Amino acid sequence: MTPAVVVSGVGVVSPAGVGLELFLHAAFEGHSLAAVDTWLKGCPVEIACRLSDFVAKDHGIARANLLDRYTQFALVSADEAMRQAGHTKESTENARLAVILGSGAGGVRTFEEQHRIFIEDGFDTMSPMVLPAGLLNMAAGQVAIRHRATGPCLAPCTACASGATAIGLAKQMLERDEADIVIAGGAEAPIAPMFTSAFARMGTLSRAEVDPAKASRPFDRNRDGFVIGEGAALMVLERADDVRARGGTPRVTVAGYGSSADAHHVTTPDPRGAGAIRAMRAAIADAGISASDIDYVNAHGTSTRYNDSIEANAITEVLGEGTLVSSTKGVFGHALGAAAALEAVLAAATVKSHRVPPTANLVDPDDACVALDMVMGSARETPITAVLSNSFGFGGQNASLLFTSS
């Protein structure tokens, strides 16, 4: 019999601040955190959802100047998650502790800053820490070092699905008895001039001449792109029996995981939503439940023209009319690989709170959404026992996670 895998602890860094409580409060309030960002001055798009006044050393991270911002976020999130789970370095000393930490961009801030120094001042002025700080696997490696995780250490990159992929792989690792505890999720700090301008050049960022707080409008008829964000979210995953045996309390069950590839286009989703449909159905099958058991979908909902309508049609195809749906990217922006993990945390929280967050700035739903029950305006209280969290990325990467009560 396949063991139940549960979440025993959660840690979050988001534009709302450091900590799970601030993140959940902002999500359920439903007010956008987007603003004009001085880091992007002179870029074609100057708005972002950034965590201001973040100082890593204030959160116990030593020698933070040697780490990229995305790694700093990951370390702070991992610390909170392990505290919540009731784990210490001593308590995990004899456990097979693994880390699976996804990111779509890695240390882009480090690379951009050091490239500027290289061009302006030459090779000898570059930091010797460019690669140890900036590589895509370094957040995973640093978390493993900090928590003495000597089990598998993986850094999956599935673009904006990376954080969900990490959690899904962690579930499978525990089911196969390849680890006892897994720290899993995603981290991202992509708010850098060139990287943000690249998205703008592609036409994926909102350029609406409105209040920045109204720019990201998932599923709205007048949406025109996303607002870039940042953050990290990490979960501690364990087998339910192990948590109870040590006197811990499972928060929620990671009941299902499904993934797929569109095999269609590097940036545009399959117009039929075929990949998204396969991922959702795989997650439901993995959980051993029926589509009719799903109470809510935390949608990928980027606020881009193609994604939202295609995803809405895919959800309707899999779950039927009247499905309860919302997206929180209107609040936090799109944190790329970290968004998948942040939204997984939120999806799991709805199971515990029986409260569904609203979609910020959704006023006039797209025609594709008319068959769905879109949560607008304010959070909704409703019984929740099973939730899907969707995440899709460039390259046609799709991942769906399914959470149920423990």
Automatic annotation (TrEMBL):
- UniProt name for this protein: 3-oxoacyl-ACP synthase II
- Could you tell me which PROSITE patterns the record lists for this protein? KS3_1, KS3_2
The cross-references to InterPro entries, in alphabetical order and at most eight, read: Beta-ketoacyl_synthase, Ketoacyl_synth_AS, Ketoacyl_synth_C, Ketoacyl_synth_N, PKS_Beta-ketoAc_synthase_dom, Thiolase-like
Q: What's a Gene Ontology MF term here? A: 3-oxoacyl-[acyl-carrier-protein] synthase activity
Q: Which GO terms describe its biological process?
A: fatty acid biosynthetic process
| A Pfam family matched in the record | ketoacyl-synt
Q: Has the keyword Transferase been applied to this entry? A: yes
Pathway involvement of the protein, from the record: Lipid metabolism; mycolic acid biosynthesis
Q: Where is the Ketosynthase family 3 (KS3) domain?
A: 2-405
Q: Does the keyword Cell inner membrane apply?
A: no
**Matching NCBIfam families:** PRK07314.1
The domain of life is Bacteria
What EC numbers are recorded for this enzyme? 2.3.1.179
What protein family does this chain belong to? Belongs to the thiolase-like superfamily. Beta-ketoacyl-ACP synthases family.
Keywords of the record, alphabetical order, are: Acyltransferase, Transferase
Q: Which residues form a coiled coil?
A: none
